[in-house]
Write a structure and sequence with these properties.
alpha/beta, Nucleotidyltransferase, domain 5, five-stranded mixed beta sheet, 15 strands, transferase, Sugar kinase, kinase activity, ROK, ATPase_NBD
């Protein structure tokens, strides 16, 4: 069966929600979700996951892809230490889902799914070597090398947010908590104020752009990608931090490398679902 005519399921296990979608070609036909509570037992959280999958499952589905914000053994299908669901210490998720739904199951971490989704459905389609950065609560990164997702050990490649930076790590300055720590309010509120020309809010995004530019310089030194695709909730504010990011890149040592380099902004709708679904393709 050709990829474009296969129906697969994408499952995104996020910080507060489990989202599912039935995907045919590039179209999400039907979606479902349930809320995640960090105090849920393993049994309760698995029951929620099964229910949410059953909302969109039908007999046309040939495989299930799952994105998890955790360390994942993609081969054995075991998920370790899911931060937003503390009861998930070592869960044989692939086997559990295959036994329950009787279709092949593929797992990876959520940042890798984002990169793969962009490669199959989004802005990374035309690039052989690129990086996808998810700008949200933290800084997630997925890496495409020679048209293939690079996982590393236990799908752990791409943790650029953990690199040392200033008095902490890069993620502290490029995730949403940067705005709360430095400006005392959320990125969402500051974004709304910046659109109303609030000077402090505009300054917040300029400072953010400078920090993100430093993160991107590190990525350029490490991987020399053709492009970086920005996604996640903060990417919507790109016009507010673009000039500061561009200024940071002016100090990159190898300017020749930047002549054809591009920063793209993801425009995928249901990106986490499509990214998880792309694991099946």
């Amino acid at each position: 069966m050709a990829e474009e005519t296969r129906t697969v399921l994408g499952v995104d296990i996020g910080g507060t929600k489990i989202k599912t979608g039935r995907v045919l070609g590039t179209h999400v036909e039907r979606t479902g979700f349930s809320m995640v509570d960090k105090n849920d037992s393993l049994e309760t959280s698995l029951a929620k996951l099964y229910e949410t999958i059953e909302e969109v499952m039908n007999d046309t589905v040939t495989a299930i892809g799952v994105g998890v914000p955790a360390v994942v053994d993609a081969d054995s299908g075991v998920v370790f230490d899911v931060q937003n669901i503390p009861s998930w210490k070592k869960v044989p998720l692939k086997q559990l889902l295959q036994d329950k739904f009787n279709v092949p199951v593929f797992l990876n971490n959520d940042a890798n799914c984002f990169a793969l989704g962009e490669k199959h459905f989004g802005k990374a389609t035309d690039y052989k070597n690129c990086v996808a950065l998810s700008l949200g609560t933290g800084l997630g990164m997925g890496i495409i090398i020679e048209n293939k997702l690079y996982n590393g050990v236990l799908c752990g490649a791409g943790e650029v947010g953990m690199l040392s930076y200033k008095d902490g790590i890069l993620e502290q300055y490029t995730g949403s908590f940067f705005f709360e720590d430095a400006y005392g309010t959320s990125a969402r509120i500051l974004y709304a104020k910046a659109l109303e020309n609030d000077i402090k809010a505009i300054a917040a995004f300029k400072e953010y752009g400078m920090h993100l530019g430093e993160a991107i310089k590190n990525i350029l030194y490490l991987f020399a990608p053709e492009a970086i695709i920005l996604g996640g909730s903060i990417s919507k504010a790109h016009p507010l931090f673009k000039s500061a990011l561009d200024d940071a890149l002016k100090t990159f040592a190898y300017q020749k490398q930047l002549e054809n380099f591009k920063i793209e902004i993801s425009d995928l709708v249901d990106s986490p679902i499509l990214g998880a679904a792309a694991l099946c393709l």
